[in-house]
Design goal:
Belongs to the biotin--protein ligase family. The protein is α+β, with helices and mostly antiparallel strands. 27% of the residues lie in helices and 26% in strands.
């Protein structure tokens, strides 16, 4: 099920989108209805209609006689126009498809991957069938988080794609740093804050033997969630629960910018130096006793380091060492045998 679709694409923008874009460009200043109508080629009555609709969406728009309209604020609204305002990327997020409600952003972007451009992003206000690694359900409450998927079409060999999950992890912690949030990375795909899971990353790939058709990079972050289901209440958290009030659009914009920079360094220059440094410095597992989890078993080990290629080096109880390219680990509790 899909509802409330909005697309950020100059060719597909509605008149309401164009009015909002005009207000954003003049944020903090009054612009007359007459000037907006002349610039957009619509009547003043149509301007008023779209202003009223934007107010209903949650935008704070002041109005004054003989002065016009002024965008004051946007509350915590995920809107393609708000995200694109001052976005400094060359291709990530240049096309945004926003849904008020969707089954899964990963599933939707896979369904349109063939005809979509590199860097297209699908964002939802709610996921009803969100998923994590190994087919697990991902709690995605409406209006409480960031649920989005990026479409990537890199010209690299399929066996070099697994590191993209860690590039995303590094980008997320760098983005959160900008807002005073110091998060950690639990290799390979979880972002941890104060010992609890804040964000998960799910990477899926469609490829042939020697080439990648596309990669879908899904991210789910708990931003405003206050109550979690009983089964995850002890292991999950949100920015709000940890004392951080940050607008989702600002976080998304920062993730886009940090990800593009680190991703392009890898795709174009085969440079992972900064990514590996971040993953080491912000690792939640290095030096810890862990379980290495596969579909059929979980084995006790100790996490030793992260290699220059992003692999996790572990040592098992029998002294055998292994370099993990992908997989899942969990941190062992002090009372585990």
């Amino acid at each position: 099920m899909i509802s409330g679709r909005q697309v950020l694409d100059e060719r597909m923008m509605t008149l309401k989108d164009r009015v909002l874009k005009y207000l954003i460009r003049n944020k903090g200043s009054f612009v007359s209805g007459e000037k907006i109508s002349e610039s957009l080629g619509i009547s003043r009555a149509a301007v008023w209609k779209h202003i009223s609709s934007l107010r209903q969406d949650g935008f704070e728009i002041d109005s004054a006689s003989r002065r016009g309209y002024m965008l004051i604020g946007d509350a915590d609204i995920i809107n393609p126009q708000i995200i694109s305002d001052s976005l400094r990327t060359s291709f990530i997020g240049k096309k945004i498809i926003y849904m008020d409600s969707i089954g899964s952003t990963n599933d939707h972007i896979k369904s349109i991957a063939g005809g979509s451009t590199d860097g297209t992003v699908v964002i939802a206000n709610e996921q009803t069938k969100g998923k994590g690694r190994m087919g697990r359900y991902w709690h995605s409450q409406k209006g409480d988080g960031i649920w989005m998927s990026m479409l990537l079409k890199p010209h690299i060999a399929p066996n070099k794609a697994s590191i993209i999950t860690q590039i995303a992890g590094a980008a997320i912690v760098k983005a959160l740093d900008e807002f005073g949030v110091s998060a950690m990375i639990k290799w390979p795909n979880d972002i941890i804050l104060n010992g609890k899971k804040l964000c998960g990353i799910l990477t899926e790939m469609a490829a042939e033997i020697d080439r990648i058709n596309y990669i879908v990079l899904g991210m789910g972050m708990n931003v405003k969630s206050d109550n979690f289901p009983d089964e995850i209440s002890d292991i999950a958290t949100s920015l709000y629960k940890e004392g951080h009030a940050i607008k989702r659009a600002d976080i998304i914009r920062s993730i886009f910018e940090n990800f593009e920079r680190l991703y392009v360094d890898y795709i174009k220059n085969d440079d992972l130096k900064e990514v590996v440094e971040i993953c080491r410095e912000r690792s939640a597992v290095i030096g810890k006793d862990i379980y290495v989890i596969t579909w059929s078993e979980k084995k006790k080990a100790r996490a030793l380091d992260i290699s220059q290629n992003g692999d996790l080096l572990v040592e098992y109880k029998d002294g055998r060492k292994e370099s993990l390219v992908s997989g899942e680990v969990s941190i062992r509790k002090a009372d585990d045998e």
